[in-house]
Amino acid sequence: MSESTPPSAGKPPQSRERAQQARRRVLRTILLTGGVMGAALSGYLPLVYAQKKRLRPPGALDEKDFLSSCIKCGQCVQVCPVQAIKLADLVDGFGVGAPYIDAREQACDFSCDAVQCILACPTGSLVYKKPAFLGVRKGAKLAAAPILKAKEKDAEPTLNLSERIGVARLTRPEACLAIQGKGFKGQVRGASFKGRMRYMEVNRWKPIRVADHPYDVAECDLCVRECPVKGAISIETVFAPDGTKRKSPVVHEPCVGCGVCEMICPVEPTCIVIDAREVWNT
Protein backbone atom coordinates (compact mmCIF):
# COMPACT_ATOMS: atom_id res chain seq x y z
CA MET A 1 0.00 0.00 0.00
CA SER A 2 1.38 3.39 -1.02
CA GLU A 3 1.89 6.19 1.49
CA SER A 4 -0.84 8.25 -0.22
CA THR A 5 -3.52 5.58 0.33
CA PRO A 6 -6.00 6.63 3.12
CA PRO A 7 -6.38 4.28 6.14
CA SER A 8 -9.95 3.39 5.21
CA ALA A 9 -9.00 2.31 1.72
CA GLY A 10 -10.01 -1.21 0.88
CA LYS A 11 -13.00 -1.24 3.33
CA PRO A 12 -16.48 -1.35 1.80
CA PRO A 13 -18.45 1.89 2.39
CA GLN A 14 -21.20 1.69 5.03
CA SER A 15 -24.60 1.46 3.39
CA ARG A 16 -27.23 4.14 4.05
CA GLU A 17 -29.50 1.52 5.62
CA ARG A 18 -26.81 0.44 8.11
CA ALA A 19 -26.07 4.06 9.00
CA GLN A 20 -29.75 4.68 9.74
CA GLN A 21 -29.90 1.50 11.85
CA ALA A 22 -26.89 2.69 13.85
CA ARG A 23 -28.51 6.07 14.46
CA ARG A 24 -31.75 4.38 15.56
CA ARG A 25 -29.82 2.21 18.04
CA VAL A 26 -28.14 5.28 19.52
CA LEU A 27 -31.45 7.12 19.81
CA ARG A 28 -33.13 4.04 21.33
CA THR A 29 -30.34 3.76 23.90
CA ILE A 30 -30.68 7.45 24.81
CA LEU A 31 -34.46 7.19 25.15
CA LEU A 32 -34.28 4.01 27.22
CA THR A 33 -31.66 5.57 29.51
CA GLY A 34 -33.81 8.67 29.92
CA GLY A 35 -36.86 6.51 30.63
CA VAL A 36 -35.05 4.50 33.29
CA MET A 37 -33.73 7.65 34.95
CA GLY A 38 -37.17 9.27 34.77
CA ALA A 39 -38.79 6.23 36.34
CA ALA A 40 -36.17 6.20 39.07
CA LEU A 41 -36.69 9.88 39.81
CA SER A 42 -40.48 9.51 39.77
CA GLY A 43 -40.12 7.04 42.60
CA TYR A 44 -37.37 8.96 44.38
CA LEU A 45 -38.82 12.49 44.36
CA PRO A 46 -42.06 11.59 46.18
CA LEU A 47 -39.94 10.01 48.91
CA VAL A 48 -37.87 13.19 49.19
CA TYR A 49 -40.90 15.47 49.25
CA ALA A 50 -42.70 13.17 51.67
CA GLN A 51 -40.17 14.26 54.27
CA LYS A 52 -41.67 17.75 54.08
CA LYS A 53 -44.97 18.01 55.91
CA ARG A 54 -47.68 19.70 53.90
CA LEU A 55 -49.87 22.28 55.62
CA ARG A 56 -53.39 20.99 55.03
CA PRO A 57 -56.58 23.11 54.95
CA PRO A 58 -58.43 23.80 58.22
CA GLY A 59 -60.21 20.80 59.69
CA ALA A 60 -58.01 18.23 57.94
CA LEU A 61 -57.90 14.76 59.46
CA ASP A 62 -54.56 13.33 60.52
CA GLU A 63 -52.37 12.79 57.46
CA LYS A 64 -52.98 9.07 56.89
CA ASP A 65 -56.74 9.43 57.28
CA PHE A 66 -56.75 12.60 55.22
CA LEU A 67 -54.93 11.06 52.25
CA SER A 68 -57.06 7.90 52.34
CA SER A 69 -60.38 9.78 52.42
CA CYS A 70 -59.68 12.81 50.21
CA ILE A 71 -60.93 12.21 46.64
CA LYS A 72 -58.97 15.19 45.23
CA CYS A 73 -62.16 16.78 43.93
CA GLY A 74 -60.89 20.36 44.36
CA GLN A 75 -64.10 21.67 45.93
CA CYS A 76 -62.12 23.25 48.79
CA VAL A 77 -59.94 25.03 46.22
CA GLN A 78 -62.98 26.48 44.46
CA VAL A 79 -64.57 28.06 47.55
CA CYS A 80 -61.45 29.59 49.17
CA PRO A 81 -61.85 33.40 48.90
CA VAL A 82 -58.09 34.06 48.95
CA GLN A 83 -57.13 31.00 46.88
CA ALA A 84 -54.88 29.73 49.64
CA ILE A 85 -55.52 26.07 48.83
CA LYS A 86 -53.52 24.39 46.09
CA LEU A 87 -53.50 20.84 44.71
CA ALA A 88 -50.28 18.86 45.04
CA ASP A 89 -48.41 17.82 41.89
CA LEU A 90 -46.67 14.60 40.86
CA VAL A 91 -43.75 14.89 43.26
CA ASP A 92 -46.13 14.24 46.14
CA GLY A 93 -46.53 10.58 45.17
CA PHE A 94 -49.64 9.19 46.83
CA GLY A 95 -50.54 12.75 47.82
CA VAL A 96 -50.81 13.96 44.22
CA GLY A 97 -53.96 16.04 43.80
CA ALA A 98 -54.43 16.46 47.55
CA PRO A 99 -55.08 20.02 48.79
CA TYR A 100 -52.42 21.90 50.74
CA ILE A 101 -51.48 25.46 51.73
CA ASP A 102 -48.17 27.22 51.10
CA ALA A 103 -48.49 29.83 53.84
CA ARG A 104 -45.59 31.97 52.68
CA GLU A 105 -47.22 32.45 49.28
CA GLN A 106 -50.83 32.64 50.45
CA ALA A 107 -52.06 31.98 53.96
CA CYS A 108 -55.57 31.14 55.14
CA ASP A 109 -56.88 34.35 56.71
CA PHE A 110 -60.36 32.97 57.49
CA SER A 111 -61.95 35.75 55.45
CA CYS A 112 -64.76 33.28 54.67
CA ASP A 113 -65.73 33.34 58.40
CA ALA A 114 -67.46 29.95 58.18
CA VAL A 115 -64.43 27.97 56.97
CA GLN A 116 -66.07 27.16 53.65
CA CYS A 117 -63.51 24.54 52.66
CA ILE A 118 -64.89 22.30 55.42
CA LEU A 119 -68.45 22.94 54.29
CA ALA A 120 -67.51 22.10 50.70
CA CYS A 121 -65.67 18.84 51.47
CA PRO A 122 -67.92 15.92 50.38
CA THR A 123 -66.03 13.11 52.13
CA GLY A 124 -65.29 14.33 55.65
CA SER A 125 -61.56 14.74 54.97
CA LEU A 126 -62.05 18.26 56.33
CA VAL A 127 -64.28 18.38 59.40
CA TYR A 128 -65.27 20.78 62.15
CA LYS A 129 -65.12 17.94 64.65
CA LYS A 130 -63.70 14.46 64.20
CA PRO A 131 -65.94 11.42 64.66
CA ALA A 132 -65.28 9.72 67.99
CA PHE A 133 -63.65 6.62 66.49
CA LEU A 134 -60.77 8.66 65.02
CA GLY A 135 -59.71 10.33 68.23
CA VAL A 136 -57.69 13.51 68.65
CA ARG A 137 -53.93 13.70 69.12
CA LYS A 138 -52.81 15.30 72.36
CA GLY A 139 -52.01 18.94 71.72
CA ALA A 140 -53.94 19.08 68.45
CA LYS A 141 -57.22 19.99 70.12
CA LEU A 142 -57.77 23.67 70.82
CA ALA A 143 -58.50 24.52 74.45
CA ALA A 144 -61.39 26.75 73.39
CA ALA A 145 -63.12 27.80 70.21
CA PRO A 146 -60.82 30.40 68.62
CA ILE A 147 -62.15 33.95 68.52
CA LEU A 148 -61.89 35.53 65.09
CA LYS A 149 -60.87 39.16 65.42
CA ALA A 150 -63.02 40.12 62.45
CA LYS A 151 -66.09 38.71 64.21
CA GLU A 152 -65.52 40.13 67.70
CA LYS A 153 -68.52 42.42 67.38
CA ASP A 154 -70.75 39.70 65.98
CA ALA A 155 -73.24 37.76 68.08
CA GLU A 156 -71.09 34.66 67.59
CA PRO A 157 -67.41 35.67 67.42
CA THR A 158 -65.85 32.21 67.51
CA LEU A 159 -64.45 30.20 64.64
CA ASN A 160 -66.00 26.77 64.17
CA LEU A 161 -62.74 24.89 64.46
CA SER A 162 -61.73 22.41 67.14
CA GLU A 163 -58.23 21.34 66.06
CA ARG A 164 -55.17 23.28 64.92
CA ILE A 165 -53.51 22.58 61.57
CA GLY A 166 -50.08 23.60 62.83
CA VAL A 167 -48.26 25.95 65.18
CA ALA A 168 -46.31 29.13 64.43
CA ARG A 169 -42.64 29.18 65.45
CA LEU A 170 -40.07 31.98 65.46
CA THR A 171 -37.20 30.42 63.53
CA ARG A 172 -34.85 33.36 62.97
CA PRO A 173 -35.09 35.64 66.02
CA GLU A 174 -31.82 37.36 65.12
CA ALA A 175 -33.44 38.74 61.94
CA CYS A 176 -36.80 39.70 63.50
CA LEU A 177 -37.43 43.44 63.21
CA ALA A 178 -39.40 43.49 66.47
CA ILE A 179 -36.47 42.02 68.39
CA GLN A 180 -34.14 44.52 66.74
CA GLY A 181 -36.49 47.34 67.75
CA LYS A 182 -36.96 48.36 64.13
CA GLY A 183 -40.07 49.53 62.33
CA PHE A 184 -41.30 48.85 58.83
CA LYS A 185 -42.47 51.12 56.06
CA GLY A 186 -43.69 50.17 52.61
CA GLN A 187 -45.19 47.17 50.83
CA VAL A 188 -44.79 43.86 52.60
CA ARG A 189 -43.05 41.37 50.29
CA GLY A 190 -42.78 43.98 47.53
CA ALA A 191 -45.03 45.37 44.80
CA SER A 192 -45.16 42.09 42.85
CA PHE A 193 -46.40 39.96 45.77
CA LYS A 194 -49.77 38.42 44.89
CA GLY A 195 -50.86 37.34 48.37
CA ARG A 196 -54.23 38.65 49.56
CA MET A 197 -55.87 39.31 52.90
CA ARG A 198 -58.99 40.73 54.44
CA TYR A 199 -58.47 44.18 55.93
CA MET A 200 -61.44 45.13 58.08
CA GLU A 201 -60.79 48.84 57.67
CA VAL A 202 -60.98 48.43 53.89
CA ASN A 203 -63.69 45.82 53.26
CA ARG A 204 -64.81 43.01 55.52
CA TRP A 205 -65.95 40.77 52.68
CA LYS A 206 -63.44 41.47 49.94
CA PRO A 207 -59.79 40.49 50.44
CA ILE A 208 -57.29 42.76 48.69
CA ARG A 209 -53.67 42.35 47.65
CA VAL A 210 -51.23 42.81 50.50
CA ALA A 211 -49.15 44.93 48.12
CA ASP A 212 -52.07 47.39 47.95
CA HIS A 213 -51.97 47.93 51.71
CA PRO A 214 -48.58 49.47 52.61
CA TYR A 215 -47.50 49.83 56.24
CA ASP A 216 -45.78 52.51 58.27
CA VAL A 217 -45.10 51.24 61.80
CA ALA A 218 -42.46 52.58 64.19
CA GLU A 219 -41.90 49.11 65.68
CA CYS A 220 -42.69 46.05 63.59
CA ASP A 221 -45.64 44.05 64.91
CA LEU A 222 -47.15 42.85 61.64
CA CYS A 223 -47.39 39.20 62.69
CA VAL A 224 -49.45 40.26 65.72
CA ARG A 225 -51.36 43.03 63.96
CA GLU A 226 -52.61 40.80 61.14
CA CYS A 227 -53.10 37.51 62.98
CA PRO A 228 -56.81 36.71 62.49
CA VAL A 229 -57.17 34.79 65.78
CA LYS A 230 -57.42 36.68 69.07
CA GLY A 231 -54.67 35.90 71.57
CA ALA A 232 -52.72 33.62 69.23
CA ILE A 233 -49.58 35.77 69.17
CA SER A 234 -48.36 38.86 70.99
CA ILE A 235 -45.32 41.08 71.36
CA GLU A 236 -43.78 40.45 74.77
CA THR A 237 -40.78 41.82 76.64
CA VAL A 238 -38.14 39.11 76.90
CA PHE A 239 -34.57 38.94 78.13
CA ALA A 240 -31.79 38.39 75.61
CA PRO A 241 -28.81 36.10 76.46
CA ASP A 242 -26.79 39.19 77.41
CA GLY A 243 -29.44 40.23 79.95
CA THR A 244 -30.87 43.13 77.93
CA LYS A 245 -34.59 43.52 77.45
CA ARG A 246 -36.05 42.98 73.99
CA LYS A 247 -39.50 42.82 72.45
CA SER A 248 -40.30 39.59 70.71
CA PRO A 249 -43.26 37.79 69.08
CA VAL A 250 -44.54 35.06 71.39
CA VAL A 251 -46.93 32.36 70.17
CA HIS A 252 -49.77 31.27 72.46
CA GLU A 253 -52.10 28.28 72.73
CA PRO A 254 -54.95 29.74 70.59
CA CYS A 255 -52.65 29.56 67.52
CA VAL A 256 -54.38 27.43 64.90
CA GLY A 257 -51.56 27.45 62.33
CA CYS A 258 -53.30 29.54 59.67
CA GLY A 259 -50.02 30.96 58.36
CA VAL A 260 -50.84 34.67 58.20
CA CYS A 261 -47.82 35.52 60.35
CA GLU A 262 -45.56 33.60 57.97
CA MET A 263 -47.04 35.32 54.92
CA ILE A 264 -46.96 38.85 56.32
CA CYS A 265 -43.43 38.79 57.79
CA PRO A 266 -41.49 41.46 55.84
CA VAL A 267 -38.10 39.79 56.34
CA GLU A 268 -36.77 37.52 53.61
CA PRO A 269 -36.48 34.66 54.31
CA THR A 270 -39.27 34.83 56.86
CA CYS A 271 -38.51 34.90 60.59
CA ILE A 272 -41.64 32.96 61.56
CA VAL A 273 -43.00 29.77 60.02
CA ILE A 274 -45.84 27.33 60.52
CA ASP A 275 -44.85 23.83 61.57
CA ALA A 276 -47.49 21.79 59.74
CA ARG A 277 -49.45 19.31 61.89
CA GLU A 278 -47.46 20.36 64.95
CA VAL A 279 -49.29 20.17 68.29
CA TRP A 280 -49.28 22.50 71.25
CA ASN A 281 -46.79 21.55 73.95
CA THR A 282 -47.45 23.04 77.36
TrEMBL record:
SUPFAM superfamilies (UniProt xref): 4Fe-4S ferredoxins (SSF54862)
Domain 4Fe-4S ferredoxin-type: 60-90, 97-131, 206-238, 247-277
Superkingdom classification of source: Bacteria
Gene Ontology MF, one: metal ion binding
Region described as Disordered: 1-20
A family per Pfam: Fer4_7
Keyword annotations of the record: Iron, Iron-sulfur, Membrane, Metal-binding, Transmembrane, Transmembrane helix
Transmembrane segments: 26-49
Protein's UniProt keywords contain Transferase: no
Protein name: 4Fe-4S ferredoxin
Organism annotation: Sulfuritalea hydrogenivorans sk43H
Lineage: Bacteria, Pseudomonadati, Pseudomonadota, Betaproteobacteria, Nitrosomonadales
